[in-house]
Amino acid sequence: MSDAPAPSPVPDQAVPDQALPASAGVLACPACGEPSPEGARFCEACGTPLAPLPPADDAAVDPRAARLAPTDGPAAPTDGSHPDPVSGGTAPGDGAPDPGTRPCVRCGGRVAEDGYCTECGEPAASERDHWAERPATWVAGVCDRGVRHSRNEDAMALAASPSAAADRAFAALVVCDGVSSAPDSDVASLAAARAARDLLAAGAPEGTSPVVGEPTARVAAWSALVADASRAAQDAILTTVGAMADRENPPSCTFVAAVVDGPLVVTGWVGDSRAYWIPDTGEAHQLSVDDSWAQEMMAQGIPRAQAESSPQAHAITRWLGPDAPDPVARTAATFPDRDGWVLVCSDGLWNYCSPAADLGALLHATQERVGHDPQSVAGALVDWANAQGGRDNITATLARFDRSSAPASPELDPDLETTIPTT
Question: Is residue 32 part of a domain?
């Protein structure tokens, strides 16, 4: 996320897609646009080489390629990370890598104490730069640093029942996007995502606090739990950031969560990370409604394209963090009537494909190309966003909704039924 949370929106500070032109005696970094003095070999801001790199074999040319291999379970940690037993993936850890103990992923050189390779200057890869979670075969997500940012401030946390074919299949997908203008927001986003995921997992049908009631009580119970999850995320941030809460711009993040419980999908959000329902056939819908200046403009009748391209578009009006004015998630629930995908993502993805119809078409085209595996599809969506410029951190999480294996959707009281919101 590029913008600071602010009730009074502020202009977007994202780096333009085009690198700054080089002027006399000044080089512009091709990755982040930061000017560097003539003759500099590496960008001082992000470490990108400004001079030709030493030859590298095919297996080591692209550092991202080494990080994109899908994993079905916990991977060996490389930077203090540890297996996440709930997500089924390897969660980024709090520890830092031991300098000099692992090679550079770009050229094979040694990583120095400052975190850069002594041979090519490439920043040391971090488990936080790119990771995947796959708690079940039908649920997975991929989180990536992107091209332009020097670190990944997105976070995700997933939980799921082993099979989507159970009478009460369960999944929880949580995505939090750290606010780039507030230092250490990556700490806030990871703490928030994990806390929310854990609370939602405890409320699963197989958990310690089963959701009961069909259908009205079930909708109400999950809506309350999703709201509680945003409170838990807020509390986790306050506990984790400690004295950093006293800063003028304390660590902050957005929040979006989606719960799949049999035939029911409940979504909650704070900020502008989004959830979408993308059926195999029929119309796709955005399940969440952004808390942003762009959404405020659209509510006043300004066309989406114009609102989302305005300088203040990504200024958010609600967020999680020490200075959050309203950290409790708003919720919406629906009973989808066909097979499809629940997609929960950060703006690093939807920035390039905002309307639900367009994002649905992208997902379907991606599925035709890479198959139906959710981790493969999520990874391909991340790759696509990076190919568009990768201006922001990118997170895409997916749950496969199998309508044929779910119980029949109950009839709701018309006064209590919650429909898919539209923007």
Answer: no
